[in-house]
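anyone seen this seq b4? input:
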Amino acid sequence: MIKVDGIILVISCHKHLNTRLKEFQLPHAEYGNWKVIYVIGDLRLDCDYKVDGNLMVIKCEDSYIHLLKKVVLSLKYLHEVFDIKEGILRAGDDLIFNEKSLCTFLNEPKEYINNGEIDKIDYMGKSFTGRSLLSQHISEADLKTTINDYYMVNYYNEHPEDIDNPLHNLQGIDFSKYIKRPHTPICPSGVLYYISNKSCNILINHLHNINYDIFHYDEYTDSYPYTIEDCSISYILHLNKINFIHYGNMYSDNYIDDNCIACHTNKYK
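predicted toks r here
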């Protein structure tokens, strides 16, 4: 296995191979001992995954609604290929990185002060609320609170061509059936977030236990928690008592900020 401090994981899809992945690709394949890996899904693959340079192709639906499955399978296979010391910085494919800020973040200890003690950071990102969330503040009632979220219904109404794409495996899916999900008000945007090896293992084991079925019905919350990736990640980690640490300089929206790791270019596109 190849020893690395961590992985910068950029999630993309076939649709953006010749656009976003070329336009926003990081100029280097490694930053210190952090390896950059780009991931797409391909159901036609005759093996679980293959790696060609910095591109990993995994046998998985390439669709938006299957994003959680793609991300967690990526975590699983990356840990098979690499001996990862710290964790993974999960990124979208529409970011302009500030390399100086990126390197500063990668080299900093992933720690925070909790009640006067130094704790390791297992989950960090930028929350819309600007707040962190420690596990002792999450009650069972909080975890079981649900909302109806029509995000994916609206997305597929606007992108019907995705339903017909054989690589997406969406024929016959009634998206309106899966609108009920856990309410996760304090969680990072899926644009860019960090998860430690501990968090990676929790996510891998959780998805393994539901057979990587993003349409799985969750009896605990009486809902479907797995169709929106960043909300799903937060639900699983909150359920497993993982603290979330807000980091306001993770990214900026549609403008370059010298203090931020990256600029999110396609937030409204």
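The CA atoms of residues 256 and 263 lie 6 Å apart. The domain at 2-264 is CATH 3.90.550.10 (Spore Coat Polysaccharide Biosynthesis Protein SpsA; Chain A). kinda curious what u guys think
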